[in-house]
């Protein structure tokens, strides 16, 4: 079976992916997933990368994602991906599917899980730094776990266009204007230098940081100093995240919070940070959901 992006889009819905990611994160942190840190092959001439991301979800799914990340792309997506699933019992390939949309949706769904556990229950102002596909998918996902009365977006180039595309979004003239007073902040950029200053953060803010591959940074030192740091994978974050490497300390994996092993938000005033790298099990679990829906004729 082969599923292109159109077919995947018809079988994939954010509200279904969020609970799947919640379970996958908990299972990963409890040792039910066999998954090495991804292999990243640099393509220096174009400033891109090719990633290999395999995972075995014990007793449930076996698969791999091949993803090309070209942050300098203009007019075409920065990510292109293919996901292959195999029968865990025999190793037989069962489906190949486009993985670009899966990457877009599962990344935001994971941030929604983190936001549900770490953001204040009364969070009402969302700030998004960035205006690409992840900005849009995060807006959709986070609106499913919190009611935002105000949404602000800032981007060097396309903030006004983003605000026109999505209802209830206001473009700001600077990242600082977007972030000051915000309860939840999303940094979804390909910036190699910090775009978020800790001085702008209100007490009790929660941050979902999506970019910042090592040695890149999205957050400055003050933002890291003020934050309690959560990640999807300790091992991956200390290898791949410029922000986490700079912070030097991780409080918990978000899967440990989901399972109750570690605490989530502990006060109304603390600043929490979820640094998302993206796990192969997230892709495999989401692809398994798409495959089941295809079989069931959903």
Tags for this entry?
about 35% helix, Rossmann fold, ornithine cyclodeaminase, domain 1, eight-stranded parallel sheet, 2 domains
Order of helices and strands: EHHEEEEEEHEHEHEHEEHEHHEHEH
Biggest beta sheet attributes: 8 strands, parallel
Mean pLDDT, rounded to whole units?
95
Low-confidence stretches: none
Q: What's the CATH topology name of the largest domain?
A: Rossmann fold
Number of domains: 2
CATH classification class of the largest domain: Alpha Beta
Gyration radius, in Å = 18 Å
Considering DSSP H and I runs of 4 or more, what fraction of the residues is helical? 25-40%
Look at the structure and name the CATH superfamily of the largest domain.
NAD(P)-binding Rossmann-like Domain
Overall body shape: globular
Which structural class do you get from the secondary structure elements?
alpha/beta
Q: What is the CATH architecture descriptor of the largest domain?
A: 3-Layer(aba) Sandwich
Strand order of the largest sheet: 10-9-8-11-12-15-13-14
The total count of helices amounts to 11
| Span between termini | 16 Å
What fraction strand? 25-35%
Number of strands: 15
Give an overview in words.
36% of the residues lie in helices and 25% in strands. It is α/β, with parallel strands linked by helices. The chain folds into 2 domains: 2-103 and 280-296, ornithine cyclodeaminase, domain 1 (2-Layer Sandwich); 120-275, Rossmann fold (3-Layer(aba) Sandwich), CATH 3.40.50.720. The protein is globular, with a radius of gyration of 18 Å. It starts with a strand and ends with a helix. The mean pLDDT is 95.
